[in-house]
Amino acid sequence: MRAEVRSMNSRRDDLPSHCDTGTSCAFTIHMHLVSAANPEAAGCVERFATFMSLLLVIITFPFSLFECFKVVQEFERAVIFRLGRLRKGGARGPGLFFVLPCIDTYRKVDLRTVSFDVPPQEVLTRDSVTVAVDAVVYYRIKEPLNAVVRVADYSASTRLLAATTLRNVLGMRDLAQLLSDREAISHMMQANLDEATDPWGVEVERVEIKDVRLPVQLQRAMAAEAEADREARAKIIAAEGEIKASRALKEASLVMVDNPMALQLRYLQSLNTISAEKNSTIIFPFPMDFLRSFMSPGAGTSITHSHLPV
Predict the structure, then answer these.
(1) What is the pTM of this model?
(2) CA torsion sign, 43 to 44 to 49 to 53?
(3) Which ranges in the chain belong to alpha helices (H)?
(4) pLDDT tens-digit profile of 49-84?
């Protein structure tokens, strides 16, 4: 007896608090207590409504068949409610299914992959740089019942969550990481979205970063920095080439010192190269030892008859 009194008191506590005082409120309380105490009453009402709906189908046969039989496509599923309650058996489809007029309502859910653009988001990166980033998200419905029952509008909810997730993910990255690690950012955003939308029956298949817009002044500064970097690398490469050329010339001079005729052969090769270009310049070989005899008279006895070019 005490258990029944406690259950009745708990049911009274669960009553809606917005009803007004008076006869209507008393009637509402009475009906609520009756339905809570006797759940079979609601089942009787449902069975009576079902019987009346079937009677209506029989009376209006065969015209009622146009309202009772529905068709969903291969890529669709139908979630059926009877008197506001979800029917057992899960989502219907694809193909033909049966509904009763006046008491059954259904809602179609598309299982195909849907894509949408995330509007450009003004994001402040970790190194305090303001950028505008937009993305594209691909998702599909994997649980039609959850998509209908657990969320009012799964499409709008997913769009808002994608915009918020994009700002949160990019706020934890530097500008250099944002420009170079787009794939890693896309995978991280996809994982976060998929985890958040899983209770709604939504599966996020892919997320792609479309465009990263930088301020104009920052673009000019980065262009100047890149140009200066390229010029520095070009100068380093030219200096390395000069070093290699000087080393090659040093080795060539050592070879020519050991063999004086090598210089004569190099001179003849230079003449051949100049003559191939059809120049009007004429070059004559002149012995260097002849000039040495004039510059140092004491060295005349050491004159050798090696004809070296000037």
Answers:
(1) 0.58
(2) positive
(3) 2-13, 23-37, 40-59, 65-68, 144-149, 154-170, 175-180, 182-197, 216-258, 261-276, 288-295
(4) 778 877 887 888 887 788 888 888 888 899 888 888
